[in-house]
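Worked problem 6 (solution included).
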Amino acid sequence: MPKSISIISSVLLFFYFFLSSFQLTASEFQKSNPSFLGKFAQKIQQKPYQYETKYYTQTLDHFSFLDLPTFQQRYLISTDHWSGPKELGPVFLYCGNEGDIEWFASNTGFVWEIAPRFGAMVVFPEHRYYGKSMPFGSREKAYKDSASLAYLTAEQALADFAVLVTDLKRNLSAEACPVVLFGGSYGGMLAAWMRLKYPHIAIGALASSAPILQFENIVPPETFYDIVSNDFKRESVSCFDYIKNSWEAIEAEGKKADGLSHLTRTFHLCQKLNSTDDLSNWLSSAYSYLAMVDYPYPSEFLMPLPANPIKEVCKKIDDHPHEAGVLERIFSGVSIYYNYTGTVDCFDLGDDPHGMSGWDWQACTEMVMPMSSSKHNSMFPAYDYNYSSFQDQCYKDYAVKPRNRWITTEFGGHDLKTTLKAFGSNIIFSNGLLDPWSGGSVLQNVSETVIALITKLGAHHIDLRAATNEDPDWLLEQRTSEINVIKEWINIYYQEKMTVLSM
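Solution. The predicted structure is:
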């Protein structure tokens, strides 16, 4: 055996035995180190996550050979705990979502907290067309029209991640280091899809709150809003009823002579309402987001919020005097979401604090997720999904026609159990059942290596958030399960490398 291969084999053998000795069940993990994640969280709160901000010269169109301009893709990287290429230290890559990558990095403490245990490098690449990763040099030029937005697709984003991480590994002489993917929500979808599309680049993916089934004719279109509604109903039936009745009250008020002005004053809006639809959409968004981030502790992911925010919203709605009007109750409740700190004087309905407006384009092209609201189970106004109307609106907004079957053609979704069982491996689909997006995710094990981890009281990718002293036992157990599965992926990778090298 050549000397260089012998050295690598020895390193691999050491790493394998080191990791093999690190087998912990959920209960053993808590017993041996019950406050590990909590202590790490306290340390992080005192000192922000440390990383370098770098830029990679990225190809605009990976699927043609046209002479197109490149763009600068931002990525965050930390090698503070990386054990290096000689020990085949893993690379933890978070698949960037539809927003500023620093926002997601600061809300994905799980990846930062477990990196030291694995000797892992941490990389957070930013999704093209979001944050500072703008093609054509600026947001204005990138978002100018359908021609400039044409390169904003999931396929191009995945290719960005693949090219960036392979080049990064090559430059660090780390070609043999395994890559593990992480992602939450749309980022979780990208993590799962990247594992399926680029299995030679990443050995596994943790896809948290990833609704890869929220597409045409896979899950019932009313699923999302039914879950949001159930989240409110479980806290208070009267709260559910007040919200359900509020839509007609808003509509009736809006039809009065000075109704829109009155609604503008009642809800403390910065600009006068043009229609009741604008107000209804603003309220609907708040209720949906509240269901997503109904965490058991205070958080600031979307907005500064108290622990169990739906409970607090319903308290506000229910605790008014009996003679209080429904609109007064609704404003009091929704202020928990939009103004918990009490520092907002008026509300701008068009505010986009996290730069997520690019999603409107994605939803009008390939990310077509049918949704409707049922008459009896939903607290939202009842409506059926109308693809023709949706198509017309997208053409009006962007001069494009949606491709509602493209995502399932590109990534699959129909008959998922059969296809993933045959062609997929090493994916964790984690979901909390309070999260309305869980209805469009994978909630049952597909195979021994494509597994579902479910928590009854979990909200939107809560497992990826930083550990806190308030974390319930079920969350500690879920994270411990994820750590053990990821460790097993890496162990198997090292074993296979050993086998190849010994041959």
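Discussion: The domain at 223-398 is CATH 1.20.120.980 (Four Helix Bundle (Hemerythrin (Met), subunit A)).
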